[in-house]
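During the reporting period the student researcher (J.K.) took over the structure-prediction task from the postdoctoral fellow and processed the backlog of single-chain submissions. One of the processed entries is reproduced below for the supervisory committee.
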Amino acid sequence: PGVVSLQLLSPHNSLSTRITITRVTVEPGSVQPRHAHENSEQAWIALSGVGTLLLEDDRRRAFGVGDVVRFEDGDVHGLENGGVEPFVYLAVTSPPIAVDDADQQKE
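J.K. obtained the following structure tokens:
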């Protein structure tokens, strides 16, 4: 709840077969739980808001507008929005992660 992902570029809506670009919005007080993508790397670009990266071994790191972070295959990552405005970031994933159309916008 409180996390909406919208794939802007993916094999589902373009000829792209090597990357996806997803806009993720995390509402205030919401958490995108720690997770990992075993066979894909991701780069996140923070667009608005202030958040906290949730990393492996319960590590945490501030993440805000203009910051960029890269996760290698299998790296644990998530995000907590403890701020008062939505936190928005772009996730660039390679190779693409299969996402069902039903998962395009999740709240």
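The committee noted the following: Strands lie at 3-9, 20-26, 31-35, 41-48, 50-55, 60-64, 68-71, 77-80, 87-94.
J.K. will present the remaining backlog at the next meeting.
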